[in-house]
Design brief:
This protein is an alpha/beta fold and about 450 residues long. It has helices at about 5-15, 20-25, 55-60, 70-80, 95-105, 120-135, 160-165, 190, 200-215, 240-250, 275-280, 305-320, 330-345, 350-370, 405-415, 440-460, and strands spanning about 35-40, 45, 50-55, 110-115, 145-150, 180-185, 220-225, 255-260, 285, 300-305, 375-380, 385-390, 415-420, 420, 425-430. It has 16 helices and 15 strands. The longest helix has 22 residues, at about 440-460. The two termini are about 40 Å apart. The structure holds pyridoxal-5'-phosphate. Pyridoxal-5'-phosphate binds near residues 124, 232 and 288.
């Protein structure tokens, strides 16, 4: 057994991995654990020296690319200076105050304050508590239900996991909890009726949302949470008119809008936030991932003026805001975020995501539109997806047992590219670092072509 086999064996015996077939992993019958050892730019390298293009930026998070030493240096500087102090009872650090001011200036809508956590899940958990707290404090204790979308992804903690609209995050884990309602996914390709335009389809989704709110009673519905571009549910940009129609309904019934910008925030869709692109005016915003480009865990809830004014005013009556984590506003996280966002701004990564994302989509369309098993190619900024179908004319899906999406993803991986098989249907997703250049995009497309050809040949 060599050194790396020994590490793999230690892992098998000791790590409970997310999204892994546990028995195969523990017994050694499953895939060999991949020991990731280094990374630079858009490429990661395993311990045996194999290089892979990371077409998914880790989990849509390493927006500035790997190996940016100035972020590592900012982390080290802060660790030497002050590794930790809490942010309870008005304690702060220079990095934290600067980061918060900066986020408020970058953000869409009228944001007032920033609360910090460590993950997208805990940010959305906090958002639910803010909705409940806000409505309790303004004398509407029944206005608590939160509407989320089918195939929305908001994390996997208890409330955020309940907001997530995918069954396998719930099954056997006693989720969803009560008080989370579900509305339809805005995917025109599968959801539209024959001849229905995107605008009409968007309006139908908004009408369904309105019917749901009226059915439940507007006095019981506190918030609606959604990603500007639906992410893990399949990388689905909204159809034309969707956000305008949805926001009109929310305003009519005094329902707060939580924009889950965990993927879209900080340039991924070609604008600073997804909300900027779609004219979304959120009351609350969740961010994580691109906030530090995942150099260290950090998330934030941006709290809009409307909500903040109520909770500030109530402090004299109900006491201090009683929510916070040991690591809320961690100084090393704040320093990492400031350094990562310096890069995002200096290198105009939002602008680059717009132009290179357009190039990526154009290349994917050019290469794969004619493939007999490609149903839809979609994307915005540096988010793109190819959806595979058994029959284009009749829009029929493949038998899930064929695992077409996972097989194409695996074939790409064997050729040196990570592109993710998304969990619903047969979808290959791309969310590369925003620093990926056109040559690297071409490499990604070439590998995808070879992978698709292999699996198409196997299917005939
Ligand atoms: N919200 C969105 C839109 C996400 O994509 C994710 C993670 O992928 C989360 C929330 C949860 O974030 P985390 O995995 O950091 O808890």
């Amino acid at each position: 057994m060599d050194h790396f086999d020994a590490i793999a064996e230690l892992d098998r015996q000791s790590v409970l991995h997310p999204f892994t077939y546990l028995k195969g992993h523990a017994s050694g019958e499953g895939p060999v654990p991949v020991i990731i050892e280094g990374a630079k730019g858009v490429r990661i390298r395993d311990a045996r020296g194999h290089e892979l293009i990371d077409g998914f930026a880790g989990l849509y998070c390493v927006n500035i690319g790997y190996g940016r030493t100035e972020v590592a240096e900012a982390i080290a500087r802060q660790a030497y200076k002050l590794a930790y102090y809490h942010s309870y009872a008005g304690h702060t650090t220079e990095e934290l105050a600067r980061l918060s001011d900066r986020l408020l200036r970058m953000a869409p809508g009228r944001m007032s304050k920033v609360f910090y956590g460590l993950s997208g899940s805990d940010a959305n958990e906090t958002q639910a508590k803010l909705v409940w707290y806000y409505n309790n404090l303004r004398g509407k204790p029944a206005k608590k239900k939160i509407i989320a979308r089918e195939r929305g992804y908001h994390g996997c903690s208890v409330i955020a996991g309940s907001m997530t609209g995918m069954n396998f995050y719930h099954d056997h884990m006693d989720l969803p909890v009560s008080g989370i309602l579900r509305t339809g996914v805005p995917h025109h390709y599968w959801g539209a009726m024959p001849g229905e335009t995107e605008q009409e389809f968007s309006q139908r989704r908004a009408d369904e949302l309105e019917a749901l709110i009226l059915g439940e009673g507007p006095g019981t519905v506190g918030a609606f949470i959604a990603e500007p571009v639906l992410g893990t549910g399949g990388i689905i940009p909204p159809p034309a008119g969707y956000w305008a129609a949805i926001q009109a309904v929310l305003r009519r019934y005094d329902v707060l809008l939580i924009a889950d910008e965990v993927i879209c925030g900080f340039g991924r869709v070609g604008t600073p936030f997804g909300s900027h692109l779609y004219g979304i005016e959120p009351d609350l915003i969740s961010v994580a991932k691109g906030l530090t480009s995942a150099y260290i865990p950090l998330s934030a809830c941006l709290v809009g003026e409307k909500v903040y004014a109520v909770i500030e005013e109530a402090t004299d009556r109900v006491g201090p805001f009683s929510h916070g984590y040991t690591y809320s506003g961690h100084p090393i996280g704040a320093a990492a975020a400031n350094a990562a966002l310096d890069i995002v701004e200096r290198e105009d990564l939002a602008g680059k995501a717009a132009t290179r994302g357009a190039y990526l989509l154009q290349r994917l369309t050019q290469e794969f539109q004619q493939s007999p098993i490609v149903g839809e190619i979609r994307g915005v900024g540096m988010l793109a997806a190819i959806e595979f179908v058994a029959d284009r004319a009749h829009k029929t899906r493949f038998d899930p047992a064929l695992k077409v999406g996972p097989r194409i993803s695996q074939a790409a991986r064997e050729r040196g590219l990570i592109a993710r098989a998304m969990p619903h249907g047969d979808i290959l997703g791309f969310a590369p670092p925003l620093v990926m250049n056109e040559g690297e995009i071409d490499e990604m497309v070439d590998i995808t072509r070879a992978a698709l050809r292999q699996v198409t040949d196997e299917l005939v």
